Amino acid sequence: MIRVSVRPEMLRWACERAGHDVAHFSERVPQLSAWIRRERRPTLKQLEKMARVTHTPLGYLFLREPPDERLPVADYRTVSGTAAAKPGPDLLDTLYAMLRRQAWLRESRVEHEAEPRAFVASARLADEPDAAGREMRRSLGLDDGWAARVRTWQDAVGELRRSIENLGVMAVINGVVGNNTHRRLRVEEFRGFALPDPYAPLIFVNGADAKSAQMFTLAHELAHIWLGRDGVSGFDALLPHGTEVEHWCNRAAAELLAPAREVTARWMEVRRSPSPFDSLARSFKVSPVVAARRALDLSLIGRGAFFAFYERYMEREGESGTKPTGGDFFNNQNTRVGELFATHVLRAALEGRIGFKDAYDLTGLRGGTFQKYARRLGWDLP
After folding, report:
1. Is the separation of the CB atoms in 125 and 244 below 8 Å?
2. Can you tell me the distance from the alpha carbon of 257 to that of 67, in angstroms, rounded to the nearest whole number?
3. Count H helices, E strands: the chain?
4. What pTM was estimated for this model as a whole?
5. Residue closest to 169 by CA, chosen among 127, 140, 126
6. CB 342 within 8 A of CB 376
7. Which of 79, 112, 125, 263 has the fewest Cβ atoms nearer than 10 Å?
8. pLDDT digit string (tens) for 177-224?
9. How far apart are CA 359 and CA 310, in angstroms?
């Protein structure tokens, strides 16, 4: 049996990269500690398992020192000006999967001589973000009071996502890596990212987040598309800050979701209620913190009132936490894959431009699951 040489430092690094210590992975790879102590050497098959359970590319384990893994897009994951930690394997795998989807759709649309999306990179940082927010809202076809007429935050997220996809933007919401429920995305690492492209713009929202947070992230990442600035966002308490780009996108998103005129009118009705920010949040389907911050920005309340509420809210959130949600698998595919992208892939497969294996790889669905999802979308596959 052929055994391979691997440096103990690389094995420790793979564990740390995946967010756990050696003891954690020793439960699944019993010989790991012996390899690190150089008492034994792994077989190639054993090392492949080590790579698989730590979500590490196999080739990395043969390096003399850890690679400098960087995000392939801008990193806006800052809190109070402090740079974020290095990206973990779940974020990197998700980001590269979305880049592959984007590259494929871009090539497909260019081959079919599709027109570029004029709104991508149509704004500049020098532009007034509130005006951009109003233009985004107009382009999405959202009229006054639309969110108040939607019963739940989940319904509001669905309607906003569909409106964004109708513009030609892939809007993906997923709380796990692909369909692997054992690899849940951490809100603490990132909330979303945007990949502007004139032919295949894409936004991704961390579905492990609260629905009210997903609303804001959808709008925030759409503002990145409007600005033409790619990047990963990871903002504290739903309030992006720390960079000029994030501040601009924050303001544009706030105007899109909670227009100044509507918020001011609604505030007059709820300001004396026991929970005015919760009332605003229900009307616009945003989080209470975003509602309170909007009231502050519009000078409806003072900074003291905002920060007093902010501290109470964060204490309450810390006690409740965010719990994962399930749901129907095939309905989930409409957010994890999206009808816009799935339709292009299905058409390409049926026309013979790509094989079904490629279609499976692009969508993350396999065999019968792919067939059933296609039928849900109204496609009759052979």
Report:
1. yes
2. 41
3. 18, 7
4. 0.90
5. 140
6. no
7. 112
8. 988 888 999 988 999 999 999 999 999 999 999 888 899 999 999 999
9. 46
